[in-house]
Queue: 2 jobs
Job 1
Amino acid sequence: MKKPEVKCIVWDLDDTLWEGILLEVEDVKLNTELKEIIHTLDSRGILHSIASKNDYDTALTKLRDFGLEKYFLYPEINWNAKSESISNIQKNLNIAMESIMFIDDNPFERDEVRHTHPEVECIDAVKLNHLLKHPRLNPRFITKDSQSRRLMYLQDMERKKNEVEYQGPKAEFLALLNMRFSIGNALEEDLKRAEELTIRTHQLNTTGKTYDYEDLKNFVNSKKHKLLISDLKDKYGSHGKIGLALIEISKNFWHLKLFLMSCRVMSYGVGTAFLSYIMHEAKKEGKRLRVDFKPTDRNRMMYVTFKFANFKEIMADESGQMLLENELSSIQNIPPYIELIIQ
Amino acid sequence: MNPIDKIRFFIKENMAIINDDAILNDTDNIFEQGFVDSMFAMQLVNFVESEFDIKVENEDLDINNFNSVRNISLFIERKQHI
């Protein structure tokens, strides 16, 4: 199977990002081409992090001097095994292991990572002149959301830090975020991002089926379909367009062919709010709600979401594909800490 | 802590409780006391599996097994006796 697009590159520092070993020679030389490469990949929406065996403060000061500090999310600069550092980065970013690429000059470190995480593509630091042409680093579209992805993750780091430090009840913390969640019909300008969402989203995704720009455009123009897209803003800024629902309309049913929510906003509760909104609307139209569900090794959380929203399984085939249905007799209300805006 | 208290404690710690006065009595419907979002739903299932050493199957994911402290504890008892 084709490997998915890379979401994050994890860099070694000594003799990879810079020439020399920081704890031996203080004035290590930055490989200037690499600065350019990192900047270009960042503008494509590819994230960067670090797994380096180094002194944290010394290395971070050096990165700041080079003007690179801001590019690296959840850097792991310590004396742990790099496989462990990569596990931490993967958990913090909440992305799949197979969407991580690791770059290191040291064959021992590459083997150590490969041994624990065979899904991670490991690249030798001397082979970087073609890096920008690497097929897994060239997304089909570069959207507004992909360009600002790093900033959105930085806001998320800030929010998580505040949540850990906050002592009061969870609902009180969520209320302080001042969340504004908007839902509207997708417009043509949203469709590149919508395609990107179908490709990049795995955990909160009902089917994992991808749709391209043309498919989505047909749904937007079809009278028998609704394509809803949602975005979230809070006091830290915008999370961008993060949710998508494709609904097929028939005489008695609204049928969710696809429902997804970016993993980045998993802890905000907006996926469930989005589903509640759709349930309320279907009920208003006098319809029942159905959903296609295809279990994968990653989307159990979505299955639990639908079951806890009172959907019942009415059909399943050998491939595991299911049809769930909801009579809409009871629907969870959208909580007061999420302001819902209908566009 | 007995299982009922463990379950109640877990819910109070992890669910976004909307009703400020919620005491979370054994039979209170948790879907009315708070907002059960995807993350909390998954955390609750994982908690029940790891804390009580049972496996929650797809067919067990019925809202009636999870909508109150008592129903969760009854569900766990049933699973432990299989």
Job 2
Amino acid sequence: MRRRIWAAAALTVTGAIALAGCSGGSSEPVPTISNPVAGQVADGILKGHTVTYAGDGGTTQDAQMKAFFTPFADKTGVTFNQDSPQTLAKIKAQVESKNYQWDFISGVADTVARNCGTLFEKLDMSKIDTSKVADGLLGGTECGVPSIAYAIVQVYSTDDFGTNGPQSWADFFNVQKFPGTRAVYSGDGVIDSATVEAAAIAAGWDPSTDFTADWANKGLDEIEKIKNNIAFYSTGSQAQQMMESGEAKIGAIWNGRALAAEKNGKKLTPVWNDWISIVDQFAIIKGTPNAEIAYYAINYAMGAEQQAKWTELSGYSPVNKDAQPKIDELTQKYITTTKERAATSVPVALDFWKDAAAVSTLQDRWSSIVAGG
Amino acid sequence: MANAPDTVQFSALSTEAIRTGGTGRRRRSAGGTRTLMLVLLPAFVVLAVFYFYPMLTVLIAAFNDPQLGWQNFQWFFGQQVNLDVLGRTLLISFWVTVICVILAFPFSYFLTVVTPSTRSFLMLIVLIPFWTSTVVRTFAWVILLQDSGPIGAFMKLFGVDSLGIIRTPTAVLIGMAQVLLPFVVLPMYATMSKIDTRLLTAARSLGARPSKAFVSVYLPLSLPGVASGALLCFVMALGFYITPAMLGSSRDAFLSTLIQGQVQGLAQWGHGSVIGFVLLVVTLVILGVAGYVGKKTGGSVQDMVGGSKA
């Protein structure tokens, strides 16, 4: 009896090893990319290969799959796997153990920038066509190209303020002039760069100058001053629910959530003066053997047609300036990647936020404001 | 909720130990023990590989991530917010436990005196939420408790303008108590169902008033179940994440939220590990104190924390 069990166990192990050996995939090398055009890829070029993408899950990732990666897999013949949610902890574990479950991800730009070269590959920009990327979205890190463009924008309840609502971030932090609870992102435990920059603008930071730790602290002062008038949200649905239910009269929230609240019948007025432009990035995990395939996938996702479909499905703004999505007026109201919007936007200052040491001290202050007694 | 079945077995075992005075172990033969060990081996291997080893690596990271030293502990105790959140975690967990015990005691007693069919129905009321995902239940509470929710709408009839419960500690207490209630009811009922009610009749026949009979006969006999349920509830409450995060404001966050921020967002495993380490030590100290108190007060409570009187 015992011998039979051992035999079965040995067989299982051998089988597993054999399978692991096979899963290396096609022995054909991946053709090297040259002269990429955004959204274009040769038919069947990746047949027999496999690539895995990790995003943030939910409807956003569904839209990414439908607009980018399922058509990409159909066209190239690649086996495209997806996973979610991507987290820095898991990426770190994969890079350290060199045991790759994921090849590329979409993540917040400051996280990508902070771990550029250590957890993420410095991108070879000759393999991705970025010539059509909308104004103001490129740059900041060598490790990412825009995957999702969105905003932290001030919105207020039209029913409560009419046309006399707050007009600037200074107004947002002025609870005497504009009384009422504010919805502010808690970062879900992590300091939120966009929110701190908005607060720094209220404290007097001129966005055309460099963002510094000093300004970050002045921004945190602003948040701390009105913290009894702030309801912190930790998820997008919470932000939306706070605005819809009237719990918060003013919010510094994501444009997509403002749009969703309006679609549910809540009247909101966005204040585009100094809105904070946030870019999530596609990034390739450091050392993955499938990097070249990831380049193909990312370059494909940047195409005008793909981006138009993405906007139609998700309501997020297209990152390709030639994209012409068919969307309703309300969705158009919250599109951020237009010339007009770009003129009043403030980018997340990646040069500052990628400095892990500076962020670490600010993080402790942030935690004590957001979670402290 | 993977540990749900353990709860029942756990308390049933401890009740068994009380009733037999811990003699069960002595009755077992040496050969029986060996078989028992063999049967336990697969479970032990699974625990060792998938539970103890990963947990150990996390605990070690508190001391050596990013480098060997006390820096993570210095960080933890140097940040007032960490201590505030630790205090809050303990305090809210304590009150959740108190609420659960107060609600579960009469309910469990009631379960022991009703007809079997009523009991099955009442058990179902306890078990259906128990089988439902915590996230789903927490979402349900968000909908119920938000100002524009059904409770808020009902209170408007009485002139209460805004309910104002969501994103307060009250909401966290309500949500957590509801989630944890089955963990208190089940061990309590397991103990109470084995109490010989003729003892109460005997006390009455000896002239004790009903209240006196209850306090000096029933209550002490039911205490092991109460202690078991309360400890289980408290220890589980300490590790809660989603319920405080969704029902409370960010200022009602538990330690787990801080761990999430440090590990998921910042990849600061050392910081995350040290928070986990402190939480574990606090939990073990509480279990230790409960065990010590149990020994001092007659040993019955000690069974609840895994010890044996034998």
